[in-house]
Amino acid sequence: EAEVAQSPRYKITEKSQAVAFWCDPISGHATLYWYRQILGQGPELLVQFQDESVVDDSQLPKDRFSAERLKGVDSTLKIQPAELGDSAMYLCASSLPGGGFMNTEAFFGQGTRLTVV
Amino acid sequence: SQQGEEDPQALSIQEGENATMNCSYKTSINNLQWYRQNSGRGLVHLILIRSNEREKHSGRLRVTLDTSKKSSSLLITASRAADTASYFCAYKYIFGTGTRLKVLA
Questions:
Q1: Which of B3, B78, B90, B93 is 20–30 Å from B71 (CA)?
Q2: Looking at residues A44-70, what average pLDDT do you find?
Q3: CB distance from B92 to chain A under 8 Å?
Q4: Which residue of B lies nearest to A33 if distances are taken between CA atoms?
Q5: Rounded CA gap, B55 and A80, in Å?
């Protein structure tokens, strides 16, 4: 069964260091989302891509976070420098073109749990 | 914040009982979706209800939608220990705060 792949599953990094997460969506899914989920809360959208273009990054802290999806397939989310408050689960999701939350379901990866020490 | 709110925040029931969780949202919607998240894992889509639908069923799940009250409910009937998880409503790209359900065997 096709699934969204994320790596690494767990990451521990020191404050002020750089960290990167990778996501490979389901083949053919043009829409890709990055979410951050703080323990005990619901996921919050960081950035949405349609193919290689950013559709919505209004909630992305752009002073330290960046995201790219250069060829419209896999995507990388980077944090530099990491802060203690960035400790969270980072989830990637994908959906079919014209789908996503407007019309159909999104498929989520298992997430990367980041701990900043 | 446009984040939806769910209640209760936590729910503990015995196996075989029904579980009901509610979601309130803040904007107009095309559809509303419910997702399940097992501890420390990704989210799994459960059901989607469109704005012109009042009720939808999927197996042991029943979802209602009241657009006039901007609210939805998820009912899980005859709950099982495997239903223990967090449940989130989602509309547009926004997730609710979640209900943590614990089903005791």
A1: B78
A2: 95
A3: yes
A4: B93
A5: 46
pLDDT at B14: 98
With contacts defined as CB-CB under 8 Å, which chain A residues touch B40?
Answer: 89, 111, 113
Say which amino acid occupies A113: R
Query: Is residue B11 within 8 Å of B21, Cβ to Cβ?
Result: yes
- Give the Cα separation of B73 and B7 in Å (integer): 10
User: Bridge partners of B45?
Assistant: B35
Question: pLDDT at residue B102 above 70?
Answer: yes
Q: Which positions in chain A touch B95 (Cβ < 8 Å)?
A: 35, 42-44
pLDDT at A102 over 70: no
Residue A60 pLDDT: 96
Which amino acid, residue A109? G
Enter the tokens of residue A79.
């944090």
Q: What is the distance in angstroms between the Cα of B92 and the nearest Cα belonging to chain A?
A: 5
List of chain B residues whose C-beta atoms are within 8 Å of the C-beta of residue A7: none
Question: What DSSP letter does each residue of chain A carry, written as one string?
Answer: ----EEE-SEEEE-TT--EEEEEE--TT--EEEEEEE-TTS--EEEEEEETTEEEE-TTS-TTTEEEE-TTSSSEEEEESS--GGG-EEEEEEEE-TT-GGGTS--EE---EEEEE-
Is residue B87 pLDDT above 70, yes or no?
yes
Q: What is the pLDDT of residue B2?
A: 65
Residue-level pLDDT at A1 = 74
